[in-house]
Amino acid sequence: MRIFSGIQPTGDPHIGNYSGGFRQYAATQERGEAFFCIVDLHAITIQHDPAELRQGTLDIAAMLFATGIDPNRSVVFVQSHVTAHAEAAWLLSAVTSYGQLARMTQFKEKAEDEEFVSAGLFTYPILMAGDILLYQTDIVPIGDDQRQHLELARDVAQRFNHRFGETFVVPEGVFPDTGGRVMNLQEPDVKMSKSRGASQGTVLMLDPPDTIRKKVKSAVTDSGSDVRYDPDAKAGISNLIELLSVTTGESIPEIEARYDGSGYGRFKEEVAESIVTLLTPIRARYEELRADEGELGRLLALGADKARAASAPTLEAMYERMGFARL
Ligand code: AQP
């Protein structure tokens, strides 16, 4: 089985990325041949700082290994190191409809925030479709926010297969049962995000323990006192219940039963401690890995070689089936 997922090297990774991304990557790598891509070409679709892109790429590489990706088992690579990705995006733009791109909610949301809306922000889901399809991917572990983009990738694969002959596996998304969309602690109706929302509401993977405690303590809840899962009526508490479930592995009913009648104070303290317990060893591993840029560079170069070899046959098949002269 082939597994593929991508993560952007912009902004500081947070507990939402852990829930929808990192922890799922480490779990799914056990199920087959996995490719994890640091999608730096995606990072330039919104205004970015060139000096930060290189650092951010190495930061995310270190975080992938720190959260359990085994470089001997899985392929970790940088998107721009494998030119097939940019080429596939152009070829696939021929089978992607303008109308479907215009319906992408992430584009609409991000376009509202940007002063300059780049063409790349609009066409980004085609690049993402190519990322996935180049590897004949069976499953894509992602968070809930990527559902629509994955659906587009599936449509693109089916349209290409129909028009030019069977070329791509049509991939399936793998979403977490709990924690598929971690919300901002200060605005529980807004997704926790690298680039949007107040930083007080975003628990970063590298936040020191006391910062995590303060952020969770000040999380917005409601005027009640029941630790009960009800995302519509109790968005803040439900988000914290999901976070506790992600960090401890307990089910939502188990958590509700454990905090029955206990009020929010102790509950919040224990949510914070569970996050601290989870992130402390990850942070220590991260610091160690991040300090050795030479080794990170070596692992990424190795990953790029493997990714080039794995994606080349698909790209060649795309060119041939579309009728390009391969002389
Ligand atoms: N809040 C979230 N809850 C669960 N999963 C999430 N992911 C992102 N936010 C949450 C998942 O993390 C993986 C990598 O994310 P990404 O950096 O490639 O995508 P993103 O959606 O752009 O991440 P951010 O942090 O929200 O950055 P912004 O919005 O600033 O661009 C993906 O699998 C994603 O689903």
Structural overview:
With 327 residues, this protein is mainly alpha-helical. The protein folds into two domains: 2-174 and 293-322, Rossmann fold; 194-287, Tyrosyl-Transfer RNA Synthetase, CATH 1.10.240.10. It contains 13 helices and five strands. The strands form two sheets. A three-stranded parallel beta sheet has the order 1-2-3, with helices on both faces. Helix 4 crosses helix 7 and helix 7 packs across helix 8 (147-164). The longest helix is centred in the last third of the chain and has 30 residues, at 293-322. The chain starts with a strand and ends in a 5-residue tail after the last helix. The structure holds adenosine-5'-tetraphosphate. Adenosine-5'-tetraphosphate binds at residues 6-8, 11, 16-17, 19-21, 142-143, 145-146, 180-182, 191-196.
CATH superfamily of the largest domain: HUPs
* CATH class wording of the largest domain: Alpha Beta
H/E topology pattern: EHEHHEHHHHEHEHHHHH
CATH architectural group of the largest domain: 3-Layer(aba) Sandwich
Number of strands: 5
For this structure, the CATH topology of the largest domain is Rossmann fold
Tally of separate domains: 2
